[in-house]
């Protein structure tokens, strides 16, 4: 999924100097962003004051939206570099196309993982016909310097490992949770898991003390370490936890995001992650001139033009504003 904001601004992120090294309970409110003509998302990362959670650097939550009489998601071809995109659905379908030739329909609880590496372009759309409801999350993972120029590729995993406990079913998207490890490729120590809680659940989820974590509320209402979360909100938890108390009085859906704090400072502008202004300028030039990022074949529409660069210099900075 793209950042379609036509007034894009640079997002400085990364660097361990701003990592919260102890448990906290920092509630992040979303910013509503229009995505295409008919989809509105709630953007949780980057957020005012909080840019990253481990290597997770971008989180959009959308739906559930009734798209029975709507085109649904329609995101034209657009570029990425220096990151991975994670497509995750609770309801509906998304058709993914990219410049490596991938064509894949992604359905609920299936992992669509695109590694942009040095350069890729892709589109996302609701297939025709499509399900009545669309509900999911789109997330980005920043690639470390050693791997950010890797070959672009797309992975699809229809079956993912699960961790279960009374009242809890956790599907592991990326990384390892408890004894379950996702088949998805990762380049830094991190974890992403979908948590389905049933009513009257009171459970403790094992965590890695050296990871920082956040929990995104997808549906229902749950209490995370005693803090009530409603859909479209996210709770940043910091580091230093061995376990996480979860409680739900009725069915609820959450996403656990975590990872080792990301050491490098980054620049995130539009759909690119770089380390310098020169890299971003070159990426914009290449996209607008039709080079480097390849071609997405089969999408019925023109590629997205890149927004103008800001007048102020782009500089990599820390994790918080």
From TrEMBL:
Keywords, in A-Z order: Iron, Metal-binding
Gene3D superfamilies, alphabetized: Jelly Rolls
Domain Pirin N-terminal residue range list: 41-141
Domain Pirin C-terminal: 193-292
MF (Gene Ontology): metal ion binding
Cofactor section: Fe cation
SUPFAM superfamilies: RmlC-like cupins
Binding site for Fe cation: 78, 80, 122, 124
InterPro entries in UniProt: Pirin (IPR012093), Pirin_C_dom (IPR008778), Pirin_N_dom (IPR003829), RmlC-like_jellyroll (IPR014710), RmlC_Cupin_sf (IPR011051)
Domain of life: Bacteria
Free-text comment on the cofactor: Binds 1 Fe cation per subunit.
Family per similarity comment: Belongs to the pirin family.
Name by which UniProt lists this protein: Pirin family protein
Source species of the chain: Streptomyces coelicolor (strain ATCC BAA-471 / A3(2) / M145)
């Amino acid at each position: 999924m793209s950042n379609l904001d036509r007034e894009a601004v640079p997002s400085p992120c990364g660097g361990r100097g701003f990592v919260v090294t102890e448990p906290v309970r920092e509630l992040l409110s979303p910013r509503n962003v229009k995505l295409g003509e008919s989809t509105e998302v709630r953007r949780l990362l980057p957020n005012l004051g909080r840019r990253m959670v481990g290597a997770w650097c971008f989180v959009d939550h959308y739906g559930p939206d009734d798209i029975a009489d709507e085109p649904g998601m329609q995101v034209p071809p657009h570029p990425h570099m220096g990151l991975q995109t994670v497509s995750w659905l609770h309801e509906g379908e998304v058709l993914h196309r990219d410049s490596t030739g991938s064509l894949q329909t992604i359905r609920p609880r299936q992992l669509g993982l695109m590694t942009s590496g040095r350069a890729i372009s892709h589109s996302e759309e609701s297939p025709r016909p499509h399900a009545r409801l669309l509900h999911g999350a789109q997330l980005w993972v920043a690639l470390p310097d050693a791997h950010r120029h890797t070959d672009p590729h797309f992975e699809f995993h229809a079956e993912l490992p699960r961790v279960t406990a009374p009242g809890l079913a956790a599907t592991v998207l990326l990384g390892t949770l408890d004894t379950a490890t996702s088949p998805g490729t990762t380049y830094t120590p991190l974890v992403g898991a979908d948590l389905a809680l049933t009513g009257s659940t009171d459970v403790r989820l094992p965590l890695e003390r050296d990871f920082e974590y956040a929990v995104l509320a997808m549906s229902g209402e749950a209490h995370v370490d005693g803090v009530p979360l409603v859909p479209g909100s996210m709770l940043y938890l910091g580091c230093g936890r061995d376990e996480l108390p979860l409680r739900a009085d009725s069915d609820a859906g959450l996403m656990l995001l975590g990872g080792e704090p990301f050491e490098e400072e980054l620049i995130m502008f539009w759909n690119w992650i770089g380390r310098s202004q020169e890299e971003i300028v070159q990426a914009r030039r290449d996209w607008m001139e039709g080079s480097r990022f390849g071609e997405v074949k089969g999408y019925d529409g023109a590629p997205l033009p890149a927004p103008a660069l800001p007048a102020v210099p782009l500089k990599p900075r820390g994790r918080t504003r």
